[in-house]
Design brief:
The protein is α/β, with parallel strands linked by helices and 332 residues long. The chain has 16 helices and seven strands. The strands form two sheets. A five-stranded parallel beta sheet has the order 2-3-4-1-5, sandwiched between helices. The chain has a two-stranded parallel sheet with strand order 6-7.
Length: 332
């Protein structure tokens, strides 16, 4: 029997089909439900926010709520980062939007979803602004983007803007537990929290990490498994390295750095990223030190992105940490 590939991806398998299934986003969902009660009053919509917070999912839920099983017939989906030129706007969007859907029940318009619309060129956005204005009787637009600032003001003023922030960690944990139960996977509380912490509010990222972790140990997911999957070392070990550097034990800190890189096989950028995260969990480091150390981390992270040698840069980073710790000790 042929296996539907989509069912193998938990992100798609457990994507909400209606607004009631959406994780978190209570305020946004309630506002959209108000529009659904009288679709004729629905304006153009602009969804803006970080990836993995449900923007595209909500747009598809709206399409299903409006048109039911035939939603694909009355919905045009475009990824504006791939088809972002003025020709696409003038041809595909304009052609689709000009046809009246007045005969379809209580919804007198079609729906056009433009994902990653902040990648559209300036001329394309200008053309889109005019189309949104002239086709409002026959079409509604849902624009999806990461940065609303990249959308021209005339378009924003024609839309009801919804801003998406990071999802609530507790809601994410509960959703991961729900998926694990459905898939007969044993997920420890510590592992669920580690996945959510790693995903940083991106539910799509969290679900993908969960599915990857489920491959190990016959469906039993513990914190160690998550560490191997997400590519992060033990937070305690990173904190030990930072503490040694701050206390002036540069050689010991450098040795610990090589142990972490050798044991886990991580790149310099990955080590730096986790140093930044663990730094703010260390209660004995003062706020002033954290600010100064964050500035140092940012400098060396930039150097690594420019292709500098990771061993040399990480060693220099630890040396800078030592200077900060020494200065703090002298001041005390």
């Amino acid at each position: 029997m042929a296996v539907n590939e989509e069912t193998l991806m938990w992100v798609e398998k457990y994507r909400p089909k209606n607004l009631n299934e959406v994780v978190d986003l209570k305020d946004v969902v309630e506002s959209l439900k108000a529009f659904m009660r009288n679709p004729k009053t629905m304006p153009h919509l602009l969804f803006a926010g970080i990836p993995g917070t449900g923007k595209t999912t909500l747009a598809l839920c709206i399409a299903r709520e409006l048109f039911g099983p035939n939603w694909k017939t009355f919905t045009l989906e475009l990824n504006a980062s791939d088809e972002r030129g003025i020709d696409t706007v003038r041809e595909r969007v304009k052609d689709f939007s000009r046809y009246s859907r007045a005969a379809f029940g209580n919804v007198p318009f079609a729906l056009i979803i433009l994902d990653e619309s902040d990648q559209m060129t300036g001329p394309a956005q200008t053309a889109l602004r005019r189309i949104m204005e002239t086709s409002s009787r026959t079409s509604r637009f849902i624009l999806i983007c990461n940065y609303s600032g990249k959308i021209i003001e005339p378009i924003q003023s024609r839309c009801a803007v919804f801003r998406f922030s990071k999802l609530d960690p507790k809601a994410m944990v509960e959703h991961l537990k729900f998926i694990a139960e459905k898939e007969n996977v044993t997920l420890s509380p510590e592992a669920a929290e580690r996945i959510v912490d790693y995903a940083e509010g991106d539910l799509r990222h969290a679900i993908n990490a969960l599915q990857t972790a489920a491959v190990y140990k016959d469906g039993v997911i513990d914190e160690k498994t998550v560490q191997n999957v997400v590519g992060e070392v033990s937070g305690v070990k990173v904190q030990v390295m930072i503490n040694k550097a701050l206390s002036g034990s540069f050689i010991d800190a450098r040795k610990k750095m090589y142990e972490l890189m050798g044991e886990y096989g991580f790149s310099g950028s990955e080590i730096v990223r986790q140093m930044q995260r663990e730094l703010f969990k260390m209660s004995f480091v003062t706020p002033e030190q954290k600010a100064e150390l964050s500035n140092i981390i940012g400098e060396y992270d930039y150097r690594l992105t420019q292709g500098a040698n990771s061993d040399i840069q990480l060693s220099a980073l630890l040396a800078q940490f030592g200077k900060v710790g020494k200065t703090q000790g002298e001041n005390q």
